[in-house]
Design brief:
alpha/beta; 4-stranded mixed β-sheet; about 35% helix; elongated
Length: about 500
């Protein structure tokens, strides 16, 4: 058993909202509200870490824009100073503190250290400000505002702009700014570490590449990101493939048009099943925080849960579908002992998952007799998977009681590092598998998984003026400039 970890839930209502959104996206085990520095002062409003990425969140709300009969520019400058400028300075200070290697704690008594280790010099730090209090004023200033989101303008230096609701940020040391409207959009669309990190990395790359990156709302930039895909690098990007472009401007309304596309609606419908994977992860994360998990804790370095959390949203869809299909296919029989074993490929080519279900009647000692045997059986299955699929470097084993027969359940996980697999190891699991026959027959069904499962001709975004050489979402294989969008 591990020690119980007590986390803050956030102090203000907006901090508590941020904590809830981060727990869904980053999972409970990797996000911590209100961490404290060695001087007992708050480091930031929320700190999340996964592998070599660290996310520092600052949540600030100001009512400076709600006062009536005041000069709009004076109100705007005051609001910006309180919510953006001050927090930007604090964010840079927090990064310096983190890189110094000084202690981070979960409580003001400095009794509970931050549970995750990371290299302060090598970690990639993402600084994020959540700014509240401008939405209504932004909507009211012009009938052309679609949502009331803050506009962003990344260039060298940070001179004040002569108009409100466009935030000027220094491109040399970028800080991300979300607002009341687009915060839940970002966290609902990029709700895994992989997806969120990939977006921020693409954004930072664009900020560094172009002399200027300007957009009317973070959600509009997100729509642009989704609509641009580099097939050679197998990832979304921000900007254009044209080399003679030195600035990118994303107009208002991109997100509004994007969510009306059939490809987006189909993706959201297809993603619903993927949260079965998240549910499995959250159960184990909560057990770890409660100190009730048995065996090796996910907090101690690499773990099965850590590997499972690395999967992007669209591949969690595939993993969940295969897992639920295996549960449905478990044979119905009156035999006392039955099993079902499935292999599920990961998004990462050198990793795979083994899913074992067991039905055993008449168990007398579940924890001390049955579960150790189930764990041993799962280990053999993982070794057999490596012997069957030699390219694997990591095998994650998941074992449960067959849901068709179990009223309650428990989960066992195994992480098997197969980077080195000498002949003695191979022979060991071959011998252990002789009477079990794991993966001796049958083949694994190969399926192509795409983020947008069914692609149809876009009905909007005709004003998209960047990324013309990206593949058209209609699936024709042609580039944007020769297909649907550019013909309209």
């Amino acid at each position: 058993m591990t020690s119980k970890i007590v986390k803050s839930e956030g102090v203000t209502p907006t901090e508590r909202l941020l904590a809830v959104l981060c727990e869904k996206s980053f999972l409970k085990l990797w996000s911590y509200p209100n961490p404290v520095k060695g001087d007992k002062k708050e480091l930031c409003d929320l700190l999340a870490v996964f592998e070599n990425h660290l996310f520092i969140f600052f949540d600030r709300e100001s009512g400076a824009l709600t006062k009536k009969n005041k000069d709009p520019m004076i109100q705007w400058n005051r609001w910006k100073k309180e919510t953006i400028d001050a927090q930007t300075k604090t964010a840079h200070g927090a990064e310096r503190y983190i890189r110094s290697g000084r202690g981070i704690f979960l409580d003001t008594e400095l009794a509970v250290p931050f549970p995750w280790d990371f290299d302060p010099q090598k970690v990639v730090v993402h600084k994020i400000i959540i700014a509240h209090g401008a939405k209504e004023a932004c909507e009211n200033i012009s009938d052309n505002n679609v949502y009331g989101s803050l506009g962003m303008f990344y260039v060298n230096g940070t001179p004040d702009l002569p108009f409100p609701f466009m935030v000027h940020m220094d491109k040399e040391n970028p800080v991300h700014v979300f607002d009341s409207h687009n915060l839940p959009i970002i966290f609902s669309e990029l709700d895994t570490f992989y997806d969120f990190t990939s977006y921020l990395d693409a954004k930072v790359e664009a900020i560094k590449t172009y002399d200027m990156l300007c957009y009317c709302g973070e959600e509009d930039l997100l729509a642009h990101y989704f609509l641009n895909f580099d097939e050679t690098k197998n990832k979304h990007f921000i900007g254009t493939s044209e080399e003679d472009i030195n600035g990118v401007y994303i107009g208002e309304g991109e997100w509004k048009d994007f969510i009306e596309l059939e490809i987006y609606k189909r993706k959201k419908a297809a993603d619903k099943v993927s949260y079965h994977w998240d549910k499995l992860l959250q159960i184990t994360c909560q057990n770890t925080l409660d100190g009730t998990i048995g065996g090796s804790s996910p907090l101690r370095g690499r773990s099965a849960i850590h590997e499972m959390a690395k999967e992007p949203r669209f591949h969690r869809r595939e993993l969940s579908e295969r897992m639920l299909q295996s549960i449905c296919n478990f044979p119905e029989s009156q035999q006392r002992i039955m099993r079902n074993l499935s292999f599920m490929p990961s998004f990462y080519k050198d990793k795979g998952y083994v899913f074992l279900q067991l039905k055993v009647d008449g168990i007398t000692d579940y924890e001390n007799e049955y579960r150790p045997k189930r764990q041993a059986l799962l280990e053999v299955a993982c070794g057999a998977a490596k012997n069957k699929f030699n390219h694997l470097k990591t095998v994650v084993g998941i074992a449960i009681d067959a849901p068709k027969y179990a009223k309650t359940n428990s989960e066992d996980f195994i992480l098997m590092d197969c980077t080195d697999w000498p002949d003695e190891q191979r022979e060991l699991y071959e011998k252990a598998n002789e009477g079990l026959g794991f993966f001796k027959t049958g083949v694994v069904e190969k399926r192509t998984v795409t983020e947008f499962p069914v692609i149809e001709t876009p009905k909007a975004a005709s004003h998209l003026k960047v990324g013309r050489n990206a593949p058209c979402p209609c699936g024709s294989g042609k580039k944007y400039k020769k297909c649907c969008i550019w013909k309209k």
